[in-house]
Amino acid sequence: MDAAVANRSGRILVTVPADREEHALEALSRVFGIVSISPAVKTALELGTIERAALEAVISDANPPFTFKVEAKRAEKRFPLTSPEINQAVGGFILDELESRGVRVDVHRPEVTVYIDVRSDGAYVFSRVIPGPGGLPLGASGKGMLLLSGGIDSPVAGWYMMKRGIALEAIHFHSFPYTSEKSRRKAIDLAESLSRWGLPVPLHVCQFAHIQEEIGRSCPDDMITIGMRRMMLRIAGEVARGRECQVLITGESVGQVASQTLESMNTIDRVIGMTILRPLCGFDKMEIIDRARRIGTFEISTRPFEDCCAMFVPRNPRTRPRPEQAEEAESGMDVSGLVTEAVQNIETIAPQGG
Ligand code: ATP
Ligand code: MG
């Protein structure tokens, strides 16, 4: 039997074969919009059956001695007992079985709560409540283009925006031959890893080395980083518009490095008439790392391969660049020609899925 999904008042009911339970729980823990998951057993609408299911639920969840309470909810009013009567009957049954092992009722602060949801098609009995990822259903908020480097931050930034319902496409700037196939592989694997959270994340790979060389030739040393960021945004914006993405997303955090000061962000943002979301702006590095570990991108991000910007890092990047200075620095470059050429040569990789 495959899984079946049905919308019930206040809940979504997912029915799976018993041997697929762990697999289903793992998959559901990656569905945005879910607040909590309660693995339940469905029984016939008959008190004796409900009692036995409730007993099994408590002992599979906790080792005696423990305190517990029963919390029944009766949506099906044709069931002969009221909710308080169900609580009493089932609570009494569990006590009879387990009192000798030190199990007690505590209605105020129980260690275990057994929930009984009485509906027209049966009673759903459960005691585990597993937190879901929360957020909004993926795609409900539109689509964004993530600037995905091989670093720790940008995949986490993408994840946070997926959590708020934004479907993703990603763009990676690759500096072949300055960086190897391995750094490109990293971006592909990161896009793949983000795809596990509900919707595939197509990855656009842009050859950036030629542009970096041009920037290196035209811009003063201390403006190289800003120049590269501005070119990345121009290209990403162009691709985003062609793919119906409404915003750009980056992994920047205020003050982390020279190009992430407020002045730098202003100077970078100036080149594009599209909103840029920076969900990690207020995060410390440790908080970002912690999240990266939990969503499964940290291992990929920390594989030891250089990313493209490491090859063109100036000794003293300017931390407070003004837009006029950036324009002046770019004045010897054919900016729009370079953007057009880069966009034309983009390779798009669809995730393998799985
Ligand atoms: P990350 O860990 O995401 O690489 P970072 O702290 O190393 O971030 P920067 O290298 O300054 O910061 O990059 C800032 C942001 O610019 C990144 O989070 C990412 O969104 C984007 N970016 C940087 N390099 C690339 C790249 N090669 N391809 C795509 N986007 C990039
Ligand atoms: Mg980086």
In short:
The protein is of the alpha/beta class and about 350 residues long.
Question: What would you say this structure looks like, in words?
Answer:
The chain is of the alpha/beta class and 354 residues long. The chain folds into two domains: 4-131, VC0802-like (2-Layer Sandwich); 143-349, 3-Layer(aba) Sandwich (Rossmann fold). The protein contains twelve helices and 15 strands. It has helices at residues 21-28, 47-61, 83-98, 153-163, 181-195, 209-218, 224-242, 262-269, 285-295, 298-301, 323-330, 335-344, and strands at residues 4-8, 11-15, 36-37, 41-43, 67-74, 104-105, 112-119, 122-126, 130-131, 142-147, 166-174, 203-207, 247-249, 276-277, 347-349. The strands form four sheets. Strands 14-13-10-11-12-15 form a six-stranded mixed β-sheet, with helices on both faces. A five-stranded mixed β-sheet has the order 4-8-7-5-6. The protein has a two-stranded antiparallel sheet with strand order 1-2. Strand 11, helix 5 and strand 12 (203-207) form a beta-alpha-beta unit. Helix 7 (224-242) crosses helix 12. It is elongated. The chain starts with a strand and ends in a 5-residue tail after the last strand. The mean pLDDT is 94. Bound molecules: adenosine-5'-triphosphate and magnesium ion. Adenosine-5'-triphosphate is lined by residues 147-149, 151-154, 171-173, 232, 250-252, 256-257, 259, 307-309.
